[in-house]
Predict the structure of TetR/AcrR family transcriptional regulator.
Amino acid sequence: MSVRADSSSGSSRPWRGVGADERQARRREQLIEAGFALMGTDGAASVTMRGVCRQAKLTERYFYESFRNREQLLVAVLEQVARQGQAVLVTALEEPRGDATDLTRRAVAAFTEFVTADPRRGRVLFVESLAAPELTSRGAELVEEFTATIALALRTPTLAGAGADEQDVDLNAQAVFGALAYLFQAWLGGRVRIDRARFVEHVVQVIEQLARASSHSAAG
């Protein structure tokens, strides 16, 4: 009887001490995790509503409780992974110790650990976000959020250079994101075969080189 009461439509009664809103939030998280498992392993094209429900061990009714369609679920998966990655960067950038190079290396190493600790994260961020048409619009918005985070680091005078203005920083943040996206895509995909330490060091040097680009004085 308890199971039927929990699954009855519109029930707001606590079940085993858990309220209806919390149960719904948990089911939504189960669906996102299931979508992440499928998307990060076989790609966005493999994600179906029924497949996600099987993976999450939930009925189809619960899918539509949280998402209008599979496209909305794909966006939720991408957003969750992007937010996690962005949080890793922000945490690394907020540490006060060291100079600009130390800061950059710490951030790159932390982010590299994030995407290699679970390879599905890298696939969602650097492969599916670029290849899945359902993610194009939201993916572009998330790129802007990532570049804003990168710009925080590039505003360090010893990294960006004393003569850099805000437009230099914004342009360089875009360039850094583009370079890093393709570098990580190539490395995680096995097209670039070097160890992690060398990859991190190379990425750090790419960031430092791009961060110094300035058209401010020439435009003036």
Q: What stands out?
A: Residues 75-214 form a domain with the Tetracycline Repressor; domain 2 fold (CATH 1.10.357.10). The radius of gyration is 21 Å. The chain has twelve helices and no strands. The mean pLDDT is 87.
